[in-house]
Amino acid sequence: MRDMPEKLVYSFWAPPTSPWSPWVKPVLFAHMDEKGVGSRVFLPQSKADVFKVFKDNYGDTALIVNLPGVESVAAGLELIDFGYRPIPLYNAAPGHSRAVHKLDPVIHALEGGTERLNEKHIDPDAPPAFLIDADRIAGPRDPKPGTFDNRWVIFPQDVPSAGFLKRQNINRVVLIQDEYTPAWQDDLCHILCRWQDAGIAIEKLVLGKSNELQPVKAPRPSYFRSLYYRWLTTLKFRRNSAGGFGGNVPQPSEGGGGYGGGFG
Amino acid sequence: MIEPIRAGDPIDAGKFAELRLRTIFECRKWDPQVGDVDVLCRFPLLMQPKQWGELADAAERMAAEAVTSEQELLQRPELLGDLGLPRPITRMFKLHRHDTLTNAPRAMRFDFHWTTDGWRISECNADVPGGWNEASGFSALVAEQYSNVRLTGDPTGALVRAIHDRVGRVARVALLHATAYVDDRQVMQFIADRLLDVGLTPLLLSPAHLDWSAGRPTYEGPIDLLVRFFPAEWLINLRPRAAWTHFFHKHATPACNPASSLLIQSKRFPLVWDKLKTSTDTWHQYLPATRDPRDADWRGNPDWVLKPALGRVGEGIAMHGIGNAKEHKRITRAVRLRPRYWIAQQRFESVPIPTPRGPMHTCIGVYVVDGKATGAYARVSHSALIDHHAMDAALLIEQPVAQPAEHPTNALPGAALA
Asked: Fewer beta carbons under 10 A from the terminal one: N or C of chain A?
């Protein structure tokens, strides 16, 4: 897939035949031309053994793959074999070499994964495996001066509504995480609680711990269902990270005091 | 009442899929889906040249009144406390009231709505207007699909020309934004592409990244012009603490827009009109009556809308019958506690127009760059509140079609799919 135009790579991940394609986030694809298409791809150890719990896929279950960095892409590609369509929801700009999150491996994995998407047949009705980065909010409270703060959060507007899921016959959502990820991330709870309230069952698969599906109830986050939530979140991040959640942290020489803000 | 705008025929689904892909990658539109809404609209809105002329003229007159008012406000510190700005910013304007801060291109967007009383505006985005990708990029791609229409203009092209006129070729232009906010970065990236096209050097930076130690902004070298897509009221959170004040001083580097644009961005701007020497007649004509919440009978009254003084994209707005009751209660409580940061505005009744997706409300965002109306795009929504769930639609002007002499007709010429 060397030198494949980014539009074509995106089209493999978001084919017009899938009802879930509109949610594929384009931003990392748009940076493929800058990041060198066809770079070497590292995919972590296979989790296919664990994913056998999904072997009976009746098309009624959506997955949220919330693993660190490139692991979600790798898991998403493996879940194709269990009848799922990976839907990348990464929504951050890669920035430069001193970024808080190195997104180049994810970009390369998305690009490298195109071959697998091309080889495998994915049913147009395949349910979605939404791919996000479990570390999206993680990072130092006060990033070092000179770093590019590209942490991000996922908003309810970034995923389908409960109504849409139900119209696609989805009545169960499984959250896949590893044992090192906080049990409940606040931004995800805003999404899961909306789905849960609409009658969609939530289950969890914690890799490395039980490796079994567990029915769970997502806790209600603050400002749940508030129109203010997106606004407040945006304000909080921007206010706390001087120049923007995602802004470059100034060098001490640029102002003498270094970076004094924080995240969260 | 005859609507001055109408919906065109939708673009064929297959063609639109390709157009959507081009919009994402060629126009840097990285948020084409919001919740369940594909925000790129398959049909354009069509308007007669006369109607566009009215909107363009109104926008230009309001822009002129706003800029003159801004200058007067800088000289009238006694009025600044009425604008609902953060106190440190008000103090800064009082300290630097003789600075004009307007030595750069000015860009604004006026949001017009078709209502039972004719055209009305809901707001003017005078500080950091967005939507450039849609107005110049998406709209141009949609226009290619139709015959007998023309674009309203190219706002981004006008902005880039204005910047180029100020700084000349090979200048370095800093595009200041919250860099990892994809919604914001896509706007800056789109403008950066256009700056590159005319030979300028764009720098995609956070405002916190600037070095002001030389008395003017630098970043690995001199910067010739600042384009700010970072709301002025958030600059006060920059670190170190002194960094934000530079944006409120007069300095040799032009800033588009200057921080003083916040004076007219505030939705409480109308509260000082009667005290200004500057005429705001056009604003009076198009903006619904606006009051301090303490001076309006808004409690339980569906005729009033509550808005934050510095709210954006329809967020934080309370309208009876729109949004949930709990949210409405939360906002009204905030208004009671801190009324000086809110306004009560008379509600207008938006008139939906028939579209291929059923009746929809419309909002026409008209750009004014350096005093001239330079184009527009539309947002359409099933709800009267046009917020981030609204769809972006191209606004196209219908062109007269030469009629064959043997079949003269007075029928309105229609846009046809090419």
From this structure: C
Question: Distance (Å) from the C-alpha of residue A47 to the closest C-alpha of chain B?
Answer: 30
Name the residue among A6, A11, A13 with its Cα closest to residue A29: A6
Q: What whole-number distance in Å separates Cα of residue A130 and Cα of residue A85?
A: 8
Phi and psi at residue B259, in whole multiples of 5°? -60, -25
Interface contacts A/B by beta carbons within 8 Å? 160
Q: What is the ipTM of this complex?
A: 0.83
Nearest neighbour of A16 by CB, restricted to B17, B34, B241: B17
Give pLDDT, residue B246: 87
Chain B residues touching A91 at Cβ < 8 A: 182
Region A216-222: mean pLDDT is 90
DSSP, residue by residue, B267-303: TTGGGGGGG-SS--HHHHHHSPPEE-GGGS--TT-TT
**pTM score of the predicted model:** 0.88
Query: At residue A50, what are phi and psi to the nearest 5 degrees?
Result: -70, -35
Tens of pLDDT, residue by residue over B257-311, are: 999 999 999 999 999 999 999 999 999 999 999 999 999 999 989 999 999 999 7
Query: Looking at beta carbons, which residues of chain B come within 8 Å of A228?
Result: 315-316, 327, 330
Confidence of residue A137 (pLDDT cuts 50, 70, 90): confident
In this structure, are residues A114 and A213 in contact, taking their beta carbons and an 8 Å threshold?
Answer: no
